[in-house]
Write a structure and sequence with these properties.
By secondary structure, the chain is an alpha+beta fold. 51% of the residues lie in helices and 20% in strands. The chain is built from 14 helices and 16 strands. A five-stranded antiparallel sheet has the order 1-2-9-4-7. It has a five-stranded mixed sheet with strand order 11-13-14-16-15. Strand 15 and strand 16 form a beta hairpin. The longest helix has 71 residues. It starts with a strand and ends in a 7-residue tail after the last strand. The model has no long low-confidence stretch (mean pLDDT 79).
Length: 479
């Protein structure tokens, strides 16, 4: 937007604090290459547009705002003469994108001294070479520091996740190794028991019946019901009594295995009527090994499936094989993060998922959203542990007008009112020394607000803290 041109008086320009040490020749150059413009109430420039001018207010009132999601948030309002804004990074040239990093409007008729960006860059380089080097060093030093801090925070999170993932993988892997070793032993005993049976003078019909019973027993294992502890105990007692009545040795040891496999007294009666009494003991022993091998193979299958799911979760979490920016299902991201953090969450914290599965995929940076979920879940777990160790973490998704809501609710200690305005500040943490960097929420805020044009907010009281992330359903970058 252009204003109305006004006379440029070197004496007035020299009264602004930026220019008060300049010579009359320098002020003359500023007036010849720059201009004074008067703007009526309304916008002056818009965030994201090419930064073509450097503005210094002579008189009036300016308001600076930043775009957060679909809203413009006011970040500064002032009537102080000499305040400046606009293309103040022009001295960096092509090394950074030269766009306005905020929007500016005026609320009353306001005069500015306006310098073209090229002139501003030129006078800085010519008149203040030492200051220019200091500014460049400060700017790129801050960028490097921020990158290092971000990388350090990611490495801390990765280290914590790797330790948790290693622990989670070790459990099913160890279970699979144990089950495989036991399975080899049981198969050996089953071969021996079969050899004993085969040495008897049994008709082909009896052997066929035994094989049929074995097949049907294996099928029964696959369909075994889940019993309550009381039901299982009652059934074990009944099976033990049946085995004792039929002179089967070690009935007390065999009964729990049979009950776990879904075998009951009725099934054993069918077995007893199928085989001759003299081979019943060997037949029961053979079926016991059959049941044990089936159960062990189920355990191996469960363990390897668990490992596969963990590897898939790690792959989903890291997004190593995905495009950085894509249409993503937030529920897949949340599930992978929760699985990666399951070891850290522990059994004392109940996780409740209240997902609205009808929500569409959204354009996003999935790997970075996973970092946001990690930080928010980690904070919730710490808050619950500070409140006694047991509690509930509820993860909820829902539509919110033209945005998607992801809410993390915990039953922890809550955030004191005096800290709520600071929790997104860099390096602010309430965790003990060595347990928190104070960067998790700062990084989360920048990922949600700056990269996704969303919002992140918190509501808290003891026993009920809610971090709410609102993400746009559409994106300019996606289109």
């Amino acid at each position: 937007m252009s204003g109305r041109l006004m006379p440029c008086e070197p004496a007035e320009i020299g009264s602004l604090f930026l220019f008060e040490k300049l010579s009359s020749e320098q002020l003359g150059r500023l007036c010849s290459e720059g201009r004074v413009e008067k703007f009526e109430p309304g916008p002056v420039y818009t965030e994201g547009d090419p930064a073509t001018c450097f503005y210094v207010m002579v008189e009036g009132t300016v308001v600076l705002s930043r775009r957060v999601g679909g809203d413009d948030v006011e970040v500064n309002r002032t009537s102080q003469r000499g305040v400046y804004s606009g293309a103040w990074q022009a001295y960096l040239g092509d090394r950074v994108p030269q766009v306005y990093n905020s929007s500016m409007r005026v609320t009353e008729p306001t005069r500015f001294f306006v310098l073209p960006a090229e002139t501003f860059a030129s006078v800085i380089q010519e008149w203040f070479p030492m200051a220019l080097h200091l500014l460049e060093g400060l700017f790129f030093g801050q960028k490097s520091t921020q990158l290092a801090i971000n990388q350090h925070e990611r490495l801390l999170a990765l280290g914590s996740l790797s330790a948790g993932l290693t622990h989670e993988l070790n459990n099913p892997a160890a279970a699979a190794v144990r089950a495989t070793s036991t399975l080899r032993e049981r198969v050996g005993k089953m071969r021996h028991k079969l050899a004993v049976i085969a040495q008897g003078s049994y008709s082909p019909e009896v052997m066929a019946n035994l094989i049929d019973i074995q097949e049907r027993t294996a099928e029964r294992v696959a369909k075994a019901p889940t019993l309550s502890p009381l039901e299982a105990s009652d059934r074990e007692d009944a099976v033990t009594d049946w085995l004792d009545d039929h002179d089967i040795p070690d009935g007390w040891r065999i009964a729990p295995t049979f009950v776990q496999a879904g075998l009951d007294v009725d099934w054993l009666d069918q077995v007893a009527t199928t085989v001759d009494e003299e081979i019943l003991t060997n037949a029961i022993g053979w079926l016991n090994y059959t049941v044990e091998t089936e159960l062990l193979m189920d355990e191996i299958n469960d363990s390897t499936t668990r490992i596969s799911h963990l590897v898939d979760a790690a792959k989903q979490y890291s997004q190593l094989d995905r495009a950085p920016f894509q249409n993503a299902d937030v529920h897949e991201l949340l599930d992978s993060t929760l699985m990666m953090l399951s070891g850290k969450i522990g059994p004392q914290i109940k996780v409740v998922k209240e997902y609205d599965r009808t929500l569409p995929k959204i354009p996003a940076y999935p790997a970075e959203l996973n970092q946001v979920w990690t930080n928010l879940i980690d904070n919730a777990v710490s808050a619950i542990r500070s409140a006694g160790g047991e509690g509930t973490l509820t993860v909820r998704t829902a539509p919110e007008h033209d945005r998607l809501l992801v809410e993390f609710r915990d039953t922890g200690v809550g955030i004191p009112p005096e800290n709520r305005g600071r929790i997104f500040d860099p390096f602010f943490t309430t965790k003990p020394v060595g347990e928190g960097t104070g960067l998790g929420l700062d990084i989360s805020w920048r990922i949600v607000v700056n990269k996704h044009h969303g919002t992140i907010q918190v509501e808290s009281e003891p026993g009920d803290t809610r971090f709410q992330v609102l993400l746009p359903l559409t994106s300019e970058e996606a289109s």
